[in-house]
Amino acid sequence: MHKIRLFAICFIAPFLSSAQANMDDAVISTVKIKDHIHMLQWQGAGNMMVLSGKDGNVLVDDQFAPLAKKINEAIQAINPGIVKYLFNTHYHGDHSGGNENFANMGATIIAHQNVRARLSADQRIINFSQPQKAAPEAAWPVITFGDELNVFLNGEDVMIFHVEHAHTDGDALYYLPRSNVLHTGDCFMKGRFPFIDRNSGGSVDGWLAAASRTLTLIDEETIIIPGHGDLANKKDYRDARDAVMSLRDAVKGKIREGLDLDQIKALNLGKSFDATFGSGFIKSDALVTTIYKDEMGEK
Ligand SMILES: [Zn+2]
Question: How many Å lie between the centroid of ligand 1 and the Cα of residue 228?
């Protein structure tokens, strides 16, 4: 049985034991968005996008190392040939865990500069007890960017833009305006409260700013590949942004009234959002805690 690293599990920690048991039997599902754009999924872990065509296969995110062979087989079924370019939306192991394997198969890895910085050194992810060890050098991006990057492949003008201090400090979103498809990475997860990894440079206000900026870029027809969960649309993203904004404002109001964290948590301010966004591993009280600590400048 393959062993996966605990720290690599961004969102499936509750299912870790079953994930370990199932990794060998994993079936990667392929969701067709357009003839040349597909989403690959496995068990609610980080969603992947495949952009295929005459310029070769382009992959955005790659989940876990033990799944690389199966992910590659799923890609071969779409379009035979190596993954030529591999992009990461951010450094978390459930999105970049296959980097070394795909690099060894010939992929060139490209990501925000902070993805390289974080993959090349040990990391401590908030909410997780174990550190994420530095990845082997082959897993590090060999091309990095700062604010933005444009690539022109397989008939798409891919707009890649960095959003500051959102889910982490190395997030990038991938927008394909011609086909109107967006991969948000973990800056958005369908039907779940966001995980804002403050230890990795994420912040509540940055997450909100990223959402608002992205929402001005897309329209109601945009097909969104979220970091986790099924395909989504602009309304789903807007609803998540509005919920977080509402919760942030409510927590700030209580801080101004002089309440401490325990008193604020006792108010259950996120109750009305739980049915819609509470299915992931971040519950509303965890987000309230994140908001409070972010506001107070606490670790
Ligand atoms: Zn993540």
Answer: 9
Under 8 Å between Cβ of 82 and 107:
yes
Angle at 73 between CA 50 and CA 222, to 5 degrees: 20
User: What separation in Å is there between the alpha carbon of 63 and the centre of ligand 1?
Assistant: 11
What share of residues in the chain are helix, strand, coil (percent, to 5)? 40, 20, 40
CATH number for the segment(s) 6-243: 3.60.15.10
What distance in angstroms lies between residue 1's CA and the mean position of ligand 1's atoms?
Answer: 25
Kindly report, residue by residue over 133-157, the tens digit of the pLDDT: 899 999 999 999 999 999 999 999 9
142 CA distance to ligand 1 centroid (A)? 21
pLDDT in tens, 32-50: 999 999 999 998 789 999 9
Distance 220 CA to ligand 1 centre (A): 25
